[in-house]
Amino acid sequence: MNIIAIIGGGPKRYIPDLQPYYEETVHWIGADRGAEVLLERGVPITKALGDFDSVTSATLKQIKAKAAEVDVYPEEKDDTDLEIAVMEAMKMKPDKILLFGVTGGRIDHTLANIQLLYTLLKAEIPCTIIDTQNQMELTSPGTHAVTRNTDYPYISFLPLTMEVTGLHLEGFYYPLENNDLPIGSTLCMSNKLVKDIGTFSYTQGILLLIRSRDI
Fold first, then answer.
1. Of 139, 153, 132, 126, the residue nearest 5 (C-alpha)
2. 123-141 burial, b if ≥16 CB within 10 A, otherwise e?
3. Is the CB of residue 68 less than 8 Å from the CB of residue 45?
4. Given Cys at both, which of 33, 129, 182, 195 links 54, Cβ 3.0 to 4.6 Å?
5. pLDDT band at 147 (very low <50, low <70, confident <90, very high)
C-alpha cells in the first residue's frame, strides 16, 4: 500500500508519536516547519517543500542535506504550504494520506485544513488527520466499517452539510436507525463501539468521523 504522511507546520505539541506509523510503504513529506519535525524525530524525508519562513536558515540547510528532494517556494503564493504538499502527494497516486501537524494554534488554520479533506474526498483518496487527541476523516454516503481503537475510544459524527439523512449506527453503545442529522446537531457525539467492528451508513450528505481521547 502506498501511504503518504504529510507533516504540517502546526504546533509541535499536537503532533503525536510518529513511530506507530513507520512502515516501508510510508513516504514522508514535510511542509515548511513540518520538515523540521521530521528532522528532529529522525524520520527519512521523502520530500520537503514550502517557503520555509518558519525555520531558521541553519535548519533549512540541514533539511536540504537530509531530504531526498526539496522544493522552496516564495512566501507570496496563492496556496498554503500544506495545500502544495497535498497536491504533490496526490501526484504520487497514494492509496491513503495521513496528515499530522495541521491542528491546534490558530482556529482558521485548523478549519481550513479540515476543509482540505473535501478535495481528497472528491478524488476518492482516503485521508485521516491525526493529532495527540483526535483522528478525523471525511466520509460520503454509503456503508462504512469502524474498527475499535483503544487509543482513540470515543467516536463522534458531525454533519458538514445542511443535513445528513438515513443514518444507521450498528455495533455502537448508542445505536441509531434511519435518523436525520441537521447541521449543528450533537446527537452523535461521544459514542463508543461495543464490538470490535461497527458500521455506519447514510444516504445523503457528508459526515465528519472523529475518533478522540481524553488527555
1. 126
2. eebebbbbbebbbbbbbee
3. yes
4. 33
5. very high
